[in-house]
Amino acid sequence: MDKFVLLNKRIIDFNNKSKYSSGEYVLYWVQSGLRINFNFSLNFAINQANRLNQPLLVYFALKENNLPTLRQYEFLKQGLINFKMNLERIGVNFFVEKINGFNQLLNVAKKASIVVCDFGYLKGQKKLRDFLKQNLNQAFYQVENDNCFPEAILSKKYTFAFQLRRQIFDKIPYLIDNFHLFEIKNKQKIFNQSIIDIEREFSRLNLDNNVRLLNFKGGEDEGLKILKSFIKNRLSYYKNYHSDPGKDFQSNLSPYLHFGFISAQMIVCEILKNFSLKDENVISFFNELLVWRELARNFVYFNRDYDNWKNLPLWAIKTLDRHQNDQRFYNYQLQVLEKGETQDKFWNAAQKELLITGKMHGYMRMYWAKKVIEWAKNWRQAYQWLVYLNNKYELDGRDPNGYLGIAWSFGQFDRPWKERNIFGMIRYMSAQGLERKFDMESYLNKIKFIKSDK
Ligand code: FAD
Predict the structure, then answer these.
(1) Nearest residue (CA) to ligand 1, atom 50
(2) Which protein residue has the closest C-alpha to ligand 1 atom 42?
(3) Atom 29 in ligand 1: residue holding the nearest Cα
């Protein structure tokens, strides 16, 4: 398998309209590839523009209510401004427009010779692609830009991570290839949108201003800085310490991956410039970045119910139902959970970390979800609340990883464990377990001192 085959496996021709209509430009309607490095969709679009000797327009449709709060919109805005500056450097046009309905996007697409978009895994993204498919006469391509192994992920459904692990680790060496961004030939300016214009488009949104962005700055350049610092300072300790919530050895790349500010394949390439694929820390990190992350894409791709309890395996549904009426020792309302005001100091700290920083530590996310199962009126209610809280506050929320993480907490991709109250045979986690494994006082202290502007 060489680089070229892999690149071709990323491209889906939506309508076989290979005869180009004579539009004004080639359009890359970008949703999740807000970067110039390792952006396969952008590269494909540049290639098409060069073939037609036309300029390329990269267009971002800014939709109200697509993201939950100011936090995510602010992060996105910073990323779009950074993307604009990077695109300008290479002679590509960029336009951000607040849209009220899909027709505005359609109008921009109708003026194009060819339309290119990123791959859409989630329901809303698919709906938008279907709309364009039905209404466009132009050639329309979708290019997978998000995962490293599209062939494996899109070909069949996996039920356990181990089924994917071996294949992925065997194929990692094929990812090590420098990505060469094509140079655009026709650098004609189509629109003259300034950063102030982008700011203005955002100011027209009606947002929930209560949830602010504090600890992260959006954009490709920032994502690359974080990657560099991770490789230099933290990766060598990843295997032993990344699970420990009191320490800070995760990469913190998930928000950047989620918004497409950085590519997983680029992360792999950068790491392997400095480390061997046999290094235990690299193996441990790739197990998360490649195996679990790719599995999440596979999960949402093959499960229409990825965002609700109906995706769960039958054994999990049965065992949870059998314990549906077990007595709950604590029974909290959503508002109490949302504020982090339960009797459990570790859970409250995790929720506070989420509320303030927009990113909860990975190990605490598992504990956080398990406790909501224990405290909600019933497990279906817990499922709904977790999706709501995760999507509202996490900067990396609304991602296949989040849907998989929540499903996993209810038994998906896991095995049955010893039967117990409320959980049945679903894996259980306790505060004592946390204390046995980690110095939880240092986690509590860390959270106590995180900055909040309130
Ligand atoms: P690192 O440890 O540095 O890992 C590097 C990358 O590997 C991550 O950025 C992520 O892309 C991937 N990764 C790590 N762990 C997982 C995992 N368990 N599943 C899939 N991919 C993984 N991840 C999100 O990106 N968005 C979410 O909304 C989200 N919600 C979660 C909810 C629950 C209940 C659980 C149990 C997990 C959730 N995760 C989610 C997965 C995981 O906790 C985060 O990806 C991770 O903590 C992000 O921090 P990091 O980038 O510093 O991780």
Answers:
(1) 252
(2) 362
(3) 402
pTM: 0.96
**Token pair of 245 as six digits:** 């919530």
Ligand 1, atom 7: nearest CA belongs to which residue? 289
Return left, alpha or beta for 358; rule: phi > 0 is left, psi -120 to 50 is alpha, else beta.
left
Probe residue for ligand 1, chosen from 396, 398, 408, 409 as the CB with the greatest number of ligand atoms within 8 Å: 396
The angle, 0 to 180 degrees and rounded to 10, between the axes of the packed helices 400-409 and 362-375 is: 50
Q: Tokens 């279906």, residue? A: 380
Query: What is the C-alpha to C-alpha distance for residues 375 and 321, in angstroms, rounded to an integer?
Result: 15
Residue to mutate (ligand 1; options 235, 248, 309, 401; most atoms within 8 A of CB): 401
Cα–ligand 1 centroid distance for 295 (angstroms)? 12
The per-residue pLDDT string of the chain (454 residues; one tens digit each, 9 = 90 and over) reads 334 334 467 899 988 886 667 899 999 999 999 999 999 999 999 999 999 999 999 999 999 988 989 999 999 999 999 999 999 999 999 999 999 989 999 999 999 999 999 999 999 999 999 999 999 999 999 999 999 999 888 889 999 999 999 999 999 998 877 678 999 999 999 988 999 999 999 999 998 888 888 889 999 999 999 999 999 999 999 999 999 999 999 999 999 999 999 999 999 999 999 999 999 999 999 999 999 999 999 999 999 999 999 999 999 999 999 999 999 999 999 999 999 999 999 999 999 999 999 999 999 999 999 999 999 999 999 999 999 999 999 999 999 999 999 999 999 999 999 999 999 999 999 999 999 999 999 999 999 988 765 4
- The most distant pair of C-alpha atoms in the chain lies apart, rounded to whole Å, by 69
125 vs 30, 119, 122, 361, CA distance in Å?
A: 11, 8, 5, 28
The rounded Å distance from CA 401 to ligand 1 centre is 6
The Cα–Cα gap between 419 and 408 comes to: 17
- Which ligand 1 atom lies nearest to the CA of residue 363? 43
What residues does ligand 1 touch, defined as CB less than 6 Å away? 242, 250-254, 257-258, 288-289, 292-293, 296, 362, 365-366, 369, 390, 394, 396-397, 399, 401-402, 404-406, 408-409
